[in-house]
What we know:
mainly beta, 7-stranded antiparallel β-sheet, 5-stranded antiparallel β-sheet, 4 helices
Amino acid sequence: MNSFFNQLFTSKPSMRTQYKLKFLSPVLQLIILASLLLQLWGCEKEEALYPQPKVAAGLQTATFEMGETYSNQLWFDFESQKTFSNQFGKWDVGFSCSGEPHITICGGKSAFLSVAKVTDVDFEHIDGSLMQNLNWKFDNPNGHIDSLAFSGCFAKQSNGYIGKPNETYVIDLGVDTIPTKRYVKMQFLSVRGGVYEFLWSYVLDPQFLYLTKVFTKPDRNYAYFNFSTMQLVENEPVALNEWDLVFTTYKESIPDVNGLMYPYIIRGALINPFKISVAQIDGGIPFDQFNFQDAQSLMYNKNVNEIGYDWKEYSQSASKYTMVPNRYYVIKTINGNYFKMRFIDFYDDKGRKGYPKMAWEILK
């Protein structure tokens, strides 16, 4: 740039320029020169500005296509209004990526998928003869660490966590698994620096002993492992700050007709507790009258199944699912935005189940 200005002030003007300039007063010549310099400086490229994301105002609606067989998961973000879809059930166990180490299971994959703890039995002596006498558990979908089937499987140390040497965990992957691969026994070794290390083998096919390390990612809630493929799989399609809730299949204890709790595989919406908290509204202020000030007065919680499945109920007279009257939800995001949301339907325009329709609106 400096060489250009030197040339501008020192180079000899052309005859045409000399002829034009000699008829101009010195003042006008200075004005023309200043104008030229301003144009040159004005050509410098300005830095790009990144606008704040805008959230659409007014009532919004969308249908989430889980499908009649519930083969899809739909991940939704209220602020961006983006939806991501992937296949359900590609994983067996999930390893937490932050906070206190813990492990979750894909309970909705099978009615039998559950975990049992075996204490004070050598790893190699755990065989098929023990399977019928174990105390099988599955995760409570509220997401609380002490409510998981693997609860308490690690002991804290100064440099991380270790597994408890006298404990082995057995996983029942369900009747749809190859019979010799149905039961998996695991012994946890350590969790350090976001890396889980454990030994595992098939209970009914113990010829191989596997040592596996699972490397977690700080931008996800869990790292997911599949025993059949012996590989990590991607279950969360986007980072944990890019989705609010997922429409998926999971397992929950529901009272049967006699009031006894029974584990059912159900379909519903689970929340991302890293990004949102939820309040459920039943009656009181009508949905269309609920406003920003009302939202600020509520108590919110981060139970993963706070929205869950019970926004719908099965009508015997209509032989279909109907929406629970006057039930809706208020969403609070980590960005300080509030949304009110309710469900409209569980069927698409062709009458097929597995297509939940939702309405929501940002509150200002």
